[in-house]
Amino acid sequence: MSLIYFLLWVIFNGRITFEIIIAGIIISLLLDLFVQKVIGLNLNVRGLIRFLKIFPDAVFYGIVLLIEIIKANLLISKLVLAPEIKVEPCLVKFNTPLKTDIARVALANSITLTPGTITISLEGNELLVHALDREIAKGLQNSIFERLLSRMEARLHA
Questions:
Q1: CA dihedral (5, 11, 17, 20) positive or negative
Q2: Cα(113)–Cα(138) distance, rounded to whole angstroms?
Q3: Are the beta carbons of 13 and 24 closer than 8 angstroms?
Q4: DSSP 8-state secondary structure symbol assigned to residue 3
């Protein structure tokens, strides 16, 4: 993985000098050490193959997340700018079928990133979410996020 970091370093610098090469080697090694020790991600050949399996899904997930954020922004703007504010805040508790901790955390974070919703707690596979309006809360369980993350989990374990 250090080699990939180093190649990215060289590409983003746009020129090759002795100082850039030395700094790139040091930064690449430190970044790889950080990723392995602190984040716990060890992308050896097997890990890289697993990552490449879900990379297209992860990119698609990012695009869907961005679209959902934009849609939620428009909905919240409509609620806020309405002449008479009629919101019904609510708490929604639901279980997710996601099996891995990382998928559940990604779901919780995606919900929180979407305006109008905040994940209050995630315990096991149970999420507690505050929604600004009941209409927003309807789409939380069995959301597109859950389906895409479930598909990524299935590909990783296939």
A1: negative
A2: 17
A3: yes
A4: H
The 10s digit of each residue's pLDDT in 50-66 is 777 888 999 999 999 99
Residue 84 makes CB contacts below 8 A (sequence gap 6+) with none
Mean pLDDT, all residues of the chain: 88
The arrangement of strands across the sheet holding 90-95 comes to 90-95, 126-131, 117-123
Question: Regarding predicted confidence, which is higher, 40 or 141?
Answer: 141
State residue 143 phi and psi, 5-degree precision. -75, 170
The pTM (predicted TM-score) of the whole model is 0.73
Which candidate, 61, 63, 68, 76, places its Cα nearest to that of 135? 76
Could you tell me the two tokens for 83? 């002449």
Residue 109's Cβ-count burial label (10 Å; 0-12, 13-18, 19+) is middle
Cα–Cα distance measured from residue 21 to residue 15, given in angstroms and rounded to the nearest whole number = 10
**Rounded to 5 degrees, what angle do the CA atoms 146, 56, 118 make?**
30
Q: Are 110 and 116 in contact (CB under 8 A)?
A: no
Please answer whether residues 111 and 119 qualify as being in contact, where contact means their C-beta atoms are separated by less than 8 angstroms: yes
